[in-house]
Amino acid sequence: MKNYKLLTPGPLTTTDTVKEEMLFDHCTWDDDYKKITQQIREELLDLAHVDHEIYTVVLMQGSGTFGVESVLSSVIGEDDKLLIAANGAYGERMEDIARHNQLSYTAYHEHYDRMPSAGKIEEYLREDPSITHVAMVHSETTSGILNDIASVAEVVKRAGKIFIVDAMSSFGGVDIEVQKLGIDYLVSSANKCIQGVPGFSFIICNRADLIASAGKARSLSLDLYDQWKTMHVDGKWRFTSPTHVVLAFAQALRELKKEGGIPAREKRYRENNQLLIEKMEELGIRPYIDAAHQGPIITTFFYPDRHDFSFQEMYDYIKERGYAIYPGKVTQADTFRIGNIGEVYQEDILKLADILKEFFAEH
Ligand SMILES: *Cc1c(COP(=O)(O)O)cnc(C)c1O
To answer: Between 31-47 and 224-234, two packed helices, what is the crossing angle to 10 degrees?
Structure first.
């Protein structure tokens, strides 16, 4: 099969050295393996800028959604109520999770091209004192908007509520002061900005609140507290762990450090993103999100005003020349998406721009 680079928001293109780690079949019960898990957990807490006594971290088998469902179904009890602020498909997925688990919840919907407002969230909390938890997405991968979690954290903390953030497509690519902001649960996964391969999610947790949630989980395999109780002792996973993925992730963390940590990675992603938008504008292609709210991870673009090609035709043309892009996901407009995270550099953006220029000239 012809190889290509992924300009998609995860799975994304990883380094050969990350992939090579998966050539080893590691035993799960020996100390070496458990040490790798513990090392990963320590490093994730450092990347989140949290005190290791006040916070802890749980690794959970499955994709990112499993991590979000693990939190929502484990820490929101019978007498609790969740407010979900949604401005895209991933916020709406949290509502779906809430319904499947029969959680008591209410939803505040915002347009896909606008950020949830801290003021409106404050109103919801004032009008409904039974709300105990607030959940939102940081980087809404649906549109590429980067939501303002800091201003929301302020009102959530002032009201004394628990704050849950889906930072799936931002953690590792955008620096997040988890403790300073007062985020109680932050969810991300192996195959996004840390640049590992898919197979597990991780949850940075306020330790006291996690311990208080013991016994509340609605599912066995996604029980966040039980997973932590086993893993916390010595790094053992409760059920079979994705060993190859764990080894690749440990290598991805080493490579993140070598790149210069999150600030250096964030800079690369931001520069990729700015160059992408500039080059697309030269071709007459406009982004869906305005510059002030556009995040550095993925960009939604409108199709050119008059065009007679399908997404599939454009996708095939680009793939044939070495890159894979994403269809649009916003419901209100006809769009496509281009991610700029993973092993992606300015030269890739320039190549893609040339490919698209040719494609538009031919169509
Ligand atoms: C990728 C992603 C998820 C998780 O999706 P999975 O398909 O389960 O990995 C959740 N939220 C956001 C914002 C994402 O980008």
So the answer is: 110
**pTM, to two decimals:** 0.97
Of 60, 92, 166, 168, best ligand 1 pocket probe by most atoms within 8 Å of the beta carbon: 168
5-9+261-362: what CATH class?
alpha beta
- CA–CA gap between residue 48 and residue 79 (Å, rounded): 30
List, in sequence order, every residue forming a beta bridge with 336; answer none if it has no partner: 301, 327
pLDDT tens per residue, range 232-250: 999 999 999 999 999 999 9
CA of 88 to the centre of ligand 1 (A): 12
* pLDDT-based confidence at residue 108 (cuts at 50, 70, 90): very high
Where do the domains of the chain lie? 5-9+261-362, 16-257
User: Of the candidates 260, 297, 5, which has an alpha carbon nearest to the alpha carbon of residue 170?
Assistant: 297
Ligand 1 centre and the CA of 327: distance in Å? 15
For the chain, give the percent of residues with pLDDT over 70: 100
Structure tokens at 54: 């006040």
Assess if CATH 2.40.240.20 describes domain 16-257.
no
Distance 11 CA to ligand 1 centre (A): 10
Cα(187) to centroid(ligand 1), Å: 10
Written as six digits, the tokens of 242 are: 């994705």
Ligand 1 cavity residues, CB under 6 Å: 9-10, 63-65, 90, 137, 141, 166, 168-169, 189
Is pLDDT above 80 for 2? Answer: no
List b or e across 133-144, with b for residues whose CB sees 16 or more CB atoms inside 10 angstroms.
Answer: bbbbbbbbbbbb
* For the CA of 68, the nearest atom of ligand 1: 10
Q: What is the DSSP string of 254-279?
A: HHHHHHTHHHHHHHHHHHHHHHHHHH
- Using pLDDT thresholds of 50, 70 and 90, give the confidence band for residue 324: very high
